[in-house]
Predict the structure of Mannitol dehydrogenase family protein.
Amino acid sequence: MQLSRQTLSRLPAGVHVPDFDPTRLKPGIVHLGCGNFHRAHQVAATQAAIEQMGHAGEDWGIVSASMRKPELAQTLTAQDNLYTLLTRAPDSTQASVMAAITQTVFARAEGETLAARIAAPLTRIVTLTVTASGYYLTAEGRLDPRSKAIVTDLKASRPRTAVGILARGLELVRARGGVPPVILCCDNVNENGATLRQAVMDFAALRGDDKLAAWIGQNVQFPDSMVDRIVPTTTENDLQDAKRLLGGLDDAAPVSAEPWFRWIISNFDGPRPLWEAYEGTRFVEDVGVFERAKLQMLNGAHMLLAYAGGLAGLDTVAQAASDPALGGLVERFMRDEQTAGIDLTSARLDTYAEDLMTRFRNPTIVHEALRIGRNGSAKMAGRVLRPMRENLEAGRSVGGAHLLIASWIHWFTEHDQGVPDRKLADPRAETLREICARTRGNPQAKAQEFLGMENVFGAPLPDHEAQVAAIAGLLQRFETQGVPAVLEALANA
Ligand code: CS2
């Protein structure tokens, strides 16, 4: 038997079930990017808010759009948009049934309907988790007018990209003379609210509608937010655990997450759910410092764990962070390099670093290197290059950043050499493949060309040639000594 509204009453004690009637929810939120992260983050906080708000909570159901996976929309629809959130601590798992989603749709098929939904008067907030690469930004954080998806969307009558769908939805609001919804970006992007606003304005302007661009700039709120919870892909083990905990009911779409949860949102005007009901949510004046700490220390360290770890055969974050050599290097990188420019006391930075290492090592969270490693070219600028640049300008060492970048490049070298499992999931895969083919056997030229990609690395780094040489040196050592031996040597240096 399947998890559904009908079978909700059969759930065993110990499972957290929604404390409201899901059929009474009206859609006040439209969400773009119905992935696991959304289902373990915004949905959980919205559910807690609905429970806390009584009658008023009924205004905050979520229409959630899957950007890439039609089957996810079907699966969730078949179980009345219910699913299990498995919160996994090292020694226990809590199952909670999530019921705040009222409808799941597939964005590609419904671009125009979705835009109309965004413009509907009931919709007060639009949230997004489409990943950093889903915005098609340059290294400077502007909409990349040369990216294929944007070029296509600009000509299309039905928008498919998040930015295109938002521009169209806001165009409809403006035409109707309505109050625009608040657009709340929940992705790991620097100054994510302001960046998204600019990207949507750029999209409108590129379509030739400068008036719409200006109207968006003046009338639509795009608060910044920092989101933090580690959420891996669903595994066979999750399906089995969900079934066991649900007393034998099948859930085809459970999500696992760590207990840690943070959502820091900059204050905005207008109605909203009482998200603070979910512990870890806070509204503040300025999200900047939290965002930098998270992007640099967590996401930056994740990239090093993913690339260097994956190359060394440590396929999950927990394995990589528990490896004495790599774990030590990552911790050093996080504390010595990735704290650059973060305006927090050293005591707070220390605690955050310590918490992060513990979270990374949580053995019940199976977070794959291959997955975190995706779309590196879109993640490099905000997470790695920004602190690296500041460290170089201040004369501090950047050995961890060199190792991270060299590992990323070596990933593509091994792909070029036909090593299995070195997939090239990246929006700039074609260019990266061409560079590798062109510079085969020449680490110096390869490092030079990679670092020369201005849409990834930005303007030349301080003392650029020295950075290229350091990275080329590592590439050479990877070839001759193998990655594990290089990590070992660096850790003991
Ligand atoms: C990860 C993030 O895949 C990635 O880029 O670094 O998804 C990370 O797990 C979350 O941002 C944690 O909050």
About this structure: Residues 188, 228-230, 298-299, 302, 372 surround D-mannonic acid (CB under 6 Å). The chain has a mean pLDDT of 96.
